[in-house]
Amino acid sequence: GANKLHNLDRLHHLHPFTDLQQYANKGGRVVSRAEHIYIFDATDKKIMDGMSGLWCCNLGYSQPTIVAAITEQLQTLPYYNSFFNCSNEAAITLAAELADVMPSGFNRFFFTNSGSEANDTNIRLVHRYFDILEKPQKRIFISRKNAYHGSTIAASSLGGMSAMHKQITGLTYVEHIEQPYWFENGGSNTPEEYGLIAARALEAKIDELGEENVAAFIAEPIQGAGGVIVPPTSYWPEIQRICDERDILLISDEVICGFGRTGNWFGCETYGMKPDLITFAKGVSNGFQPLGGVAVSDKVANVITTSDGEFAHGFTYSGHPAACAAGIATIALLRDSGILEHTRQHLGPYFRQRCQELSEHAIVGEVRTQGMLAAFELVKNKDSKERLGPDGSGAQFARDCAIESGLMVRAVGDSIISAPPFVCSNDEINILIDRLVAALDAASDEFGVRG
Ligand code: PLP
């Protein structure tokens, strides 16, 4: 049973973002089933999923209408492509539904299988846009340090994760600026002062490179895998001003923030951003099928749909009927059964309140929350901000304690991250917080901090 699977996994299966040597020796956890907000491993240990899978199963694991939609679609039209002027009803319907829930001015959608491919698609779309406008020299993308935009060579070039950049030779025309990470970089500035400073790094970078050479700025409304970096409220309006004044396209990567995670349909709405392109994936299909894409604003679409010649880009599974069926059913649940409204009005504020209480804990230096996203920055000393352990070891220890006690959370740098499904009850949020507190207590003992 469990041991045999565990061994086969260790011997034959290469895992993403995993120390392959360690895995080959020791293996990991085999997850065998899931229901509601719980996963069960091969030993039948039940773990509350405080991460919604990889921030994607926003409606939890038991959604029969999504499963039925996928199944029905597989029985009617299991596959056809959307190349060469072909289409299918599921892809058409999903595009129309997306137009309904997206911010106004977003009416056209290009489908991919993943967020990484969607960001590659963004690069192709932006190049095509400026080529048609006869500004081919506008080529450079500006992104942020510590960003994660995917794992293809192009998407990882947009990303700013130093560990990945050590392992790839990526696009030569990507530049990175600081993220609005006040706790780390804010110094004696207030968060609002620091938000402006961090945003103006974009202006300085554009001036350094020459506005005529810069095509686009890409960022997540809240940097997710980079540590749930909730920006000061001054940050996005200033970024928007800079992009508008300098003819720079703004790309909002909503792979994590989209479909309700920040409390609204899209993170750009939470922050009043007016992007030109929106990357989506993950929550669009509740993680039940591989699906991603780019939402193209009318401004960009009106250029690329009124010029001769083929857009030479796409994937065999772009607009895959079964994936699109999952997307249609997911949107229906979020919109028509009131889950998003409940999350925005009740669950998100409750989660936020319970998370904020942890700022009293001896090792919590800062709590960052918005909607159903939270980060707890772990410190040894709240005044000096000295982190709990070297190289993120404090957060890793706390994460391991949490998982052991039946709560899946993630460690990013010195922070513990949580992004629970929107179908939690208040009682389940309370259990999540209790398990987190127990893990923080264990970590403060381990690292010798007195409460
Ligand atoms: N963009 C962001 C913000 C992400 O968080 C991720 C994945 O975590 C991606 C892009 C890449 O998406 P995928 O893993 O579907 O390729």
From TrEMBL:
The keyword Transferase applies. InterPro entries: Aminotrans_3, Aminotrans_3_PPA_site, PyrdxlP-dep_Trfase, PyrdxlP-dep_Trfase_major, PyrdxlP-dep_Trfase_small. Its cofactor is pyridoxal 5'-phosphate. One of its GO terms (cellular component) is cytosol. Keywords: Aminotransferase, Pyridoxal phosphate, Transferase. One of its GO terms (molecular function) is pyridoxal phosphate binding. Belongs to the class-III pyridoxal-phosphate-dependent aminotransferase family. This is Aminotransferase.
